[in-house]
Specification:
Layout (H helix, E strand, L loop, with lengths): L1 H25 L2 H14 L1 H24 L2 H39 L9 H33 L3 E6 L2 E6 L1 H37 L1 H13 L5 H32 L23 H4 L2 H8 L6 H7 L8 H6 L3 H9 L17 H29 L1 H8 L5 H5 L1 H64 L6 H7 L1
Antiparallel strand pairs: 1-2
Helix pairs in contact: 1-4, 2-4, 3-4, 3-7, 4-8, 5-6, 5-8, 5-11, 5-17, 6-17, 7-8, 8-17, 14-15, 14-17
Length: about 475
Amino acid sequence: MKAKIAVCASLFLFLLIASANAAINQQSINDNAAAMQNILGQSGAAYIAILISLLIAAVLYMGSSVFSDSRMLAISKDTFYQALMSLLLIASFPVIYVVVTQLCVELFLGGMPVSGDVYDIGKMFLLWNQIYYGVHLLIITILYGGISGIINQQYTIPVASALVNINLTAFAKPMLFAMNMGITLITTSLFVNTFQLMFLDIVHTNLLPIFLPLGVLLRAFPGTLNAGNVLLAIAIGSYIIVPAVYMFDIYLVRELVSDKNLNPPPNTNAPDFKNGLGLMPFFYNQQTLSTIVSAGANCPLAKKFLNMGTNGYAGPYEVLAMSYNDYNNSLAGCGVFLDAIPTQLSKLPTWAVVALGTATAASAASSIITAATTLRDVSPTIWARLCAKKGLGTACKFASQFAFGLSAFSALSMGALAIFLFVMAFDLISGTAVSFIILAVIIPFINFTIVVIFIRDFSQYVLGTPISLGHLVRLI
């Protein structure tokens, strides 16, 4: 029975090699060769562990001959068999990885200019999430400053001989609260995304050198066989499936903001914040994701993140030091046009610019008139001589009314601008919340579920050791 299984496994290995050759001929030979070389480099300790297992089997076999111990003979044969199966599994692992990843690339990234290994693509996708969060952090910071400076103020209007205070703080508080919630949401999303970046790096560079040899050695003994199978399932299964889930993520978000499901925002100064996803359609459309999948070849900001010494984990904070124009220039190569976001005065609608300018002029004129009327109380003689001049009599007579009218007009203009900022902030933050829930909650949960189920099935159906999802989750 075991010989039959070994023959079937060998045939399966040859089939995988043939499939891999076909896949390699269609994809970049250098990328696949580098990926296989990386796996072989990390598997060196596992081959040493296989050699140790074979030596243990030989020692047990000799001991069974010397002591005529049938139980020791059976253990030596089982150890030898498990060592051969471990050798077959680890030797075929690079081929399995190439075949599975190429299938995922063709299935989820078909039509995109793929460059680099799937781990590079997954890392670029996560770094692009970091950029997405950093841009939101900058925009919300700008809006927060605008609301605090314009709306969260108390205005004084002279009425007759009294001063009337108009306090807009109560109107600003709910908007500032929403801004604070948005910043909290961004911070949480950055934490989740940074954890995914770290986990991706751990799986790519640290998991195989530790778990593979330990799993092989545990498989050499009947009492620890299942533990060894679980470790091998975690190492091999994670290495295969973790980058694959990010290929699925790219496909998922691309379909989510595609023309079939959402009207794409135009590359003009009229963004549609009412699409329910905030700025997500700007960053995750077909054109932008194609640039990211090709390792950010045309995106200066993405390349800068990729080349950072800390794997881009500090990216959003690095980006906060950039100006709005720097953002625009850095992201233009990625197909993202931030000039469609009216966060600068020159980007505001015409009526909003007029309202702001008129309100400022009216407020300044009201202040001048109020200062002039103060002269009436301080020096009535000078005031009377001034008002006696031609053309100033009417102005002096109705100075207080003019000051009140101008101040009221200034307050109404500021209120109209405040309403615009409130509507813009509400649409932006509500869309931001939805997009962040998708990127930082729903998609990571789906990824974790897929990874856990794949490892469980790999352990059960490939290595023959069933394990419950609960135990596997606690182990991970």
